[in-house]
Amino acid sequence: MSTIEESDLSEKSRKLWLKAIAALEQRNADFAINLLEALVKEEPDFLTGRKALRRAQIQKAKAGGGKKKFFGGLGAFNAKALAKKSWHDALADVEKELASDPFNVKVNNALFDLAVANEQYDLAEFALETIKEGHPEDTKSLHKLAQFHLDQDNPDKASEIFGAIVKRDPSDLVAVKGEKDATARASMRQGNWESKGGFRDMLKNEDEAKSLENASRAGMTKEQIRAQLTNGLGEYGENQNDLALVRKIGGFYEKLEEWQNAHQFYAWAHHLSEGDSALERKASQMEERASDEMIASLQAELEKLSGEEAAAKQAELDELVGARSARLTEAARERVERNPTDPQLRFELGQHLYNSGEFTEAIPHLQRARNNPHIRTRSILMLGRCYDAKGMLDMAQSQLEEALSELVTMDNTKKEVLYALAMVAEKNGDKDKYLGSLKEIYEADYGYLDVAHRVESSYAG
């Protein structure tokens, strides 16, 4: 049993899906929910539709001012009774309960257990991720999510979840050990050691084994990373076509923030992999950071100059910025042409087009990207910025408010959205929304950009 994609939908279901997307874009949550409920009943294995339904339910719950519940308000819901029903009937019962309380811990845990029992692992992950979004303080569910990722052989994700638990509760020794073990396991898999009967079996002696074990540990000093890099470069001199080794060296340079060297090794790793898109993206990111570093260096030099020297340096800087923007945009465009259905690539192209001042061209790519729940909020934020840049302030404000309605915790993304909303409100002459947005940031992060100055100066005089 597996999930289905949009291309697998029947003609009737596809029409429902398109209408639901349109309703979501128009912020008509009630209509979207009605359509999506009918859709998941007709196509219960369409996970993307179920995720969209949950997002609409969350929007409606927030708009109604309802509080997130852990266990209350479940009525006659009986998780144990689900095991006696067919997969689709049990799923329908769970959806009925989540309609009014999408973040409910007990029901989402029941959904997780039901999905695992039916080998619907993407749905199982989604159930626990929903709890994580609504109840980030619920470390019991976070532990369950981390263990699920380990069971699914996703140590990178497990390490990230364990890290979130440790950040919230540094005394949680199980999470501390879990993060360390998951990080080591991810490093071993990256080097392709597990597939060869254990990484020690690959090595010539215990000293080399210990060296690579040290490389897998998080929190190495720069001196330790440099030592590992030196060892790796020695091996590279003997074999320049070892993909795992080349990727590892790229990772060491990345940790040392030597972006140009990191770019060269990731680019070579991409070539050796015969087109691994993740390595291609990593190489592009390193090239971008190398350009950022060069631009920052030129800007620092420019501040010390005046007259003709300053004008010459400014011309050099402008040329570099323009060339960088054009190069990144063209590379992103080529990736989209090769993988036109990848929403992450659409988002990256839209972002580069925005940075190049091509606001109109960026909009359709960002609209496509926002259908992916993992990058939806970032895509809506960028759309708001595009509309702002085009002077379409009412549409910019609408997009930013939509993004804000989907954010729960005060993280960096929420601060970005609030700040952007404040700037649009200021242009619109809406002083209350302008200050209200800034004060939300001020209460959480005094040092964010110029928020403190803007808020405090509003009380002067």
Could you characterize what this model shows?
Helix content is 73%, strand content 0%. It has 461 residues and is mostly helical. The protein has a domain at 6-185: Serine Threonine Protein Phosphatase 5, Tetratricopeptide repeat (Alpha Horseshoe), CATH 1.25.40.
- Report the sheet with the most strands, covering strand number, pairing sense and barrel closure: none
Kindly state the percentage of residues in helix. over 70%
**Euclidean distance between termini CA atoms:** 67 Å
The CATH architecture name of the domain at 6-185 reads Alpha Horseshoe
The first-level CATH class name of the domain at 6-185: Mainly Alpha
- Structural class by helix and strand composition: mainly alpha
- Rg, nearest Å: 25 Å
Contiguous low-pLDDT stretches (5 residues minimum) are: 70-74, 193-210
Q: How many strand segments? A: 0
Categorize the overall geometry.
Answer: globular
* The CATH H-level homologous superfamily of the domain at 6-185: Tetratricopeptide repeat domain
The CATH topology of the domain at 6-185 is given as: Serine Threonine Protein Phosphatase 5, Tetratricopeptide repeat
Number of helices: 23
Question: Whole-number average pLDDT?
Answer: 82
Q: What is the ordering of alpha helices and beta strands?
A: HHHHHHHHHHHHHHHHHHHHHHH
Query: What is the beta-strand fraction?
Result: under 5%
